[in-house]
Every structure is written in structure tokens, then in C-alpha cells.
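Chapter review: from sequence to fold.
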Amino acid sequence: MPNQKILYITTEMYPYQEDTNMAAVVNKMALKMHNEGNDVRVFMPRFGQISERKFQLHEVIRLSGMNIIINDLDQPLIIKVASLPGERLQVYFIDNEEYFKRKQYYFDDEGRPFDDNDERAIFFARGVIETIKKLNWVPDVIHLNGWMASFVPIYLKTYYESDTYFKDAKIVLSLYNEKDAALDQNIAAKLKFDNISDLKALDNPSVKTFVADSMNYVDVVVKGDEFLDEDLDKAFNETATVKSEYLDINSINQLY
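The C-alpha cell string follows.
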């Protein structure tokens, strides 16, 4: 259905990331919906590997300048924007020097997960939500891709529960086989600061447990990878949320 406002929240998108299924799928989904006459916007982290010069990112001063408070610490939110190369499709980048300047995504050079991956996910989720509100652009559909994006519905249905801004948005979650990693055990205290406490994932905080929990806060769950690993597939099969098997790009709009 054309003339919808569709928000893609993702951690990967081609050409900013290459050689992953998620990056390719998000690129194709967003372009397909854009070319079919929908108002499409994409939000993603401004990871350090993304070249601002190559992709012509520039800061949006009117959207930047907010602070996101995480665990009683103010973190400045910087918003950058670019057009997808060769297309008239805007991509917004959530940036913060403390969280996203580093040249790796989630693991250091020795393969250890970063200690602050939990805070980075919280900052990303809240940064997207606050920026969308500041844009005064109300999405009809929110499509989530990548484990950091899974924090968005958790926040929308808890911390922002009384906020009617997103109340009519349909939330779709795509599942991908991402490398699992433990998250800081102190994440419970950080989320409690935002009045979030009733999460099963807090018993064993990790990338996968938070993705599994987020399935309970969305309207539709779909397989982003055709074949999911055992733990993710089990969570997919057990969720009571409406779900869909893998859909090729030509069929993706039936989710909306």
C-alpha cells in the first residue's frame, strides 16, 4: 500500500556495510518501498567505519544538541544525514563520540565484546525515538533490523508507554543470525533508571536474550535470514506474537 510513512531502524545497510545479508535486505526493502511511493526514512548508528567524506554525511544542527541520560550520565546526541548514493532516500545516523567513534562494531581486536554495548544500544534506541519526535514525522510502520534496534520496542512499550506519538504505528521485527555476546550485568540498574525492570533477558543479559524479549513488544516477527540458528529459531517458534516465515523482497510489503 503506497503513501505510508515507513521507518527502518537498522544496524546495517548497504553500502555503509557490505557483505552481510542484513545490509543487503534493508537496502532492498527500503528502496522498494521508496520506489512504490511511500515516505521512507532509515535510521542507523554512525559506526566509525562509515566514511563521512565518502558518503557525504553532514550534521543536522536543528536535530542535534539533545542529551540522552543513561545511568545518570548525560550523553550528547548528534544526528547526521545523507542520501543513499544515487537515490533520493534519506538515511539518518545516530552519533556520539563516546559510543560510536571506534573502528569496530561490537567486539575489540581480540574478539571481546565491548563493555558498554548495552549502553550503546540504549543510546541508539532512545536517540532514534527522540529524533523522530523532533522531526514531527509520525511513522505508520516501524521495521526493526539488528539487535540494537530490538531495544526500540522495549522502550516504546515501557518508558514511552504513556506517549501517544507512536501509538498507531505497526512494529515489525526481522530476525537475523547475529553473533551472540553477553551484555553488562549492570544493565538492570541502567534500565531501572528508565523504569524498565520486568524483562526476562535481565536474568541472562545478552544480544540474543534481548532480541527474544523484544518479540513480545512488536506486532509481527519475520525471519530476516531464511534459516535461523537453533536458539533464535526456538524463540521464534515459541513467541505468541504474529509471525511470518522468510519473505523475499518482492513479498515484503505484505507485512505492511
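Two observations follow directly from the output. The mean pLDDT is 95. Helices lie at 21-35, 52-55, 97-100, 117-135, 151-156, 187-192, 207-214, 230-238.
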